[in-house]
Structure formats: C-alpha cells, structure tokens
Write a structure and sequence with these properties.
- It is a single chain.
- The protein is an alpha+beta fold.
- The chain has seven helices and 17 strands.
- The protein has one domain.
- It is 26% helix and 35% strand.
- The strands form four sheets. Strands 3, 4, 7, 8, 13, 14, 15 and 16 form an eight-stranded mixed β-sheet that branches.
Length: 334
C-alpha cells in the first residue's frame, strides 16, 4: 500500500489531447542513456568520433599513408629531427650574402660541383597543427547514423590535411632554400591549363636534386585540383598523380603558388609524445554554448633547409657553409 506523500513514477501516462485522439507521454524508468536512445545522445557521438580518430591517427594505417604522401619520420619524445646528407646530382652555382676571404676579396657566388654533399636541417619555424571542431547539441539531438558520422570524420581529416599543407606552404615560401620563379598563370580549358602547368613544372626541375617530376612532391593550391582532375579524365588516366607523373599534395588557405619538393632532400619530422602517440585528441565540454569541442593537434618539423660548403679561395682551403636552393616555388601571376 502506498504511504502518504510517496510517489512512484509511472512508465507511461495516457492523456486526452482532443475528443478524437489520445497521446502518450513516455517516462524513462530504466537507465538514463539506454542503448535504444544512443542515436540521439550527443556524448555517445563524441565518444565514438574521438575513439575513431584515435584509432586511425595514432595507428599504423595513418603512418603508412603519411609516408606514401611525402618522406617523413616519427621521432621519439625529446629527440631532434634527423637531417639528411645527400650528394648533388649536377653542378650548380649558388648566390649568397657577400663574404670576405683571406685575400680580402668579397665573394657572393660560388660553384657547387656534382658529388658535393648537401646536408639538410629543420626550418626555423616548426608547424603546430591544431584543429578544433565544435559539435552543437541541438544539431545532433535529432539523431545520427553511422554513415553521417563517417562523413563527418572524413571531412575533419580532409580539413586538417589541407590546412596543414597550407601552413607548410607558408613556411616554405620564406625558407632560405626556396628558389622563387614568377610565371604567367595559364588560361583556357582545363586540358590546356593542365598541359601548361605540367610544362612549367618540367622546365623548372632543379637538376641538382632530381632529374624528373617523379623525384618530387608537387604542393599546389586546392583551387587547381578540379581543373587537373578534369584534365585527367579527358586524358583517360585515373588521377592527378598519373597525369602529372609526380606525387601531389593540395593545400588550402593563402595561394603561395606551386612547390616542387625533392623527395630525397626534404622530409617532415613528426614529434611523438611520451605515450608514443603523434596526435593528441581531446573532447571538452563547452557548457556556454551547449556543445562539445573536439581538438586535434600535433607538432611537426619541416626538414627543408639545405646547406652546402662552397670555396672562398681558389685553393679550397677556406670554405663557407651557405644555403643551397633545393625547393622550387612557382608563383602564378595574372
């Protein structure tokens, strides 16, 4: 028998809405977040998204994909980026800030002969990849599916890739080892534009670090992707890389032009945390906006500054280490 003032919450309560219809008000007496309601639970969505990002970005699959895209290393916490020492393929004259030799002569240009050793080191600026995505509660309360979650995850990863590549392009645009050329921007139909771009890339190959386009990674603005994809379709090839004959990495943001990155002379050096993970992924409750903030971040060094020793005296006894032009930047002007 129910005691006075004791109330038992019913599981269902039926009430009249109009004379012809009845409605049902449902009270949940089971667990607050039952499995049957997971598809409208924002915290379940966030947990699944973070777990999927963790599994991919800190797993072997992402590392393999990163190494296929561009030469890179994953170094333990506290260690320094690994530079390369590679022999030049052709003679090259380099210009540098005027230096005085022992004979009181001012030297501003020196010859680097084929067979000389070039060593690389990280750029002055490391890249901090930091991406934040806000998921508002009211956008998910209507429900979600596995497919929609997969689409969101793919979009986040794509945004991170393009944004990070854009920041790399910004750093390389002012790096000492970047050689800049200005060329007229191709116009016309996609096939014509693609052919002109490939011609520009081919004629600006730095023969000291590569002999063909396949020796380079082409960093290009994402605005050119649609044009090149259409040209690839017309040419009957599968993708842009088959059309150009080189690895391709699009970037978003400011247009810095096209870059030719020599595969054997440049690399990305990702810093691992003390837990061995490259990426740090966090989900934080944003109570002020009734949302969740998902943050994905990592730090990477760009090993792209080339150094080489040049002779300041005819006998070769006095040498000076100067910047060596390895990366080609083609700026397209109207």
């Amino acid at each position: 028998m129910t005691k006075p003032f004791e109330y038992t919450k019913p599981s269902t309560y039926t009430t009249a809405i109009t004379d012809e219809h009845t409605g049902s008000i449902r009270f949940n007496t089971a667990d607050v977040r039952p499995e049957t309601q997971a598809a409208t639970d924002v915290s379940v969505y966030v947990e699944a998204l973070v777990e999927a990002a963790e599994d991919y970005l800190n797993g072997d699959e992402w590392r393999e994909a990163a190494m296929e895209a561009t030469p890179c290393e994953f170094r333990p916490a506290g260690s320094e980026a690994t530079g390369q020492q590679i022999i030049t393929m052709a003679d090259r004259s380099v210009k540098f800030d005027p230096r005085k030799n022992w004979d009181n002569q001012t030297i501003s240009k020196g010859e680097v002969l084929a067979g000389s050793v070039i060593f690389t080191e990280p750029t002055d600026t490391a890249l901090v990849i930091s991406y934040r995505h806000t998921l508002l509660d009211h956008n998910l309360m209507a429900g979600f599916t596995e497919g929609s979650m997969a689409q969101t995850a793919d979009k986040i990863l794509r945004d991170i890739e393009l944004s990070a590549a854009g920041k790399i392009a910004g750093i390389l645009s002012t790096a000492p080892s970047t050689e800049v050329f200005s060329e007229a921007k191709p116009t016309g139909k996609p096939v014509e534009i693609a052919e002109d771009l490939i011609d520009l890339l081919t004629t600006h190959i730095n023969q000291t670090v590569g002999t063909s386009l396949s020796d380079f990674v082409v960093l290009l603005p994402v605005s050119l992707v649609a044009v090149l994809e259409r040209a690839a379709q017309r040419a009957g090839v599968g993708d842009i890389e088959n059309l150009i004959g080189a690895s391709v990495q699009p970037y978003s943001g400011t247009d810095y032009g096209l870059f030719l990155l020599p595969k054997h002379f440049t690399s990305l050096s990702y810093r691992e945390g003390r837990d061995g993970n490259v990426w740090k992924i966090e989900a934080t409750r944003n109570g002020a906006h009734q949302a969740w903030d998902i943050e994905i971040m990592t730090v990477v060094d760009i090993v792209a500054n080339g150094k080489v020793k040049v002779k300041l005296t005819a006998d070769g006894l006095q040498t000076q280490t100067v910047a060596f032009p390895m990366i080609t930047n083609i700026k397209l002007t109207a």
